Amino acid sequence: MSNRAQRGSKQPDTKGQHLTLPMLIPMDRRMALKVMAVAAAMPGLASCGTGAEDTADGSLSIGPAGTASDPDLLSPVIPWERILTQDELDTLASLCDLIIPADERSPSASQLGTHHYIDEWVSAPYARMGRDRVRIQEGLVWLDDEAGRRFGQGTRFRDLSPERKDEICSDIAYLSDAAPEFESGARFFARVRDLTSGAFWTTEEGMEDLQYIGNVPLDRWDPPPPEVLEYLGLA
Question: Mean pLDDT, the chain, as a whole number?
Fold first, then answer.
């Protein structure tokens, strides 16, 4: 595996059926990871609540402005303490940069603070984030244990060469391909990859890399090509 977004470029399962939409735009590994990031975000967006709590009579109880149930979006404040230690953050940053390294188009994931975003996420006092916290903290320990097992006792994952980091992560890149002894590591890697992707491509630099244009009037909008509409049955 090599370079940016390699982890997101899952090859098609040739043993099963898959779509054969004509490739109008070349799908490189970087683009594949962007698609995965959007797909991973959709279930979460669909299930997001208001942050308010239901009361016995069915009404909503809204907390004071600036709290978790009524956030101040103009002057946001994180109402909880960060949990990850600096040592954990250093290892996490190394992993984030393996997922999205710097290139000619943008800085690396850690340069944009994705590991701090993950720290904020797993520190949140909610059940879902709590489960992620356990998985990620245990996964970071596993990375160091695996580095020591393969390359010498006491070896830290973050101190390995990119090639050796890649060797470890190749075994946990995809849950469907992971050996039984690597399934837990694969679930950990998948969660970090999703959070890294979501954090990276919602920064200003990430949106520029994504070529996202929002809230900007366009002089012209070109509809999808006819062959795409025909393929989708919308022609």
Answer: 79
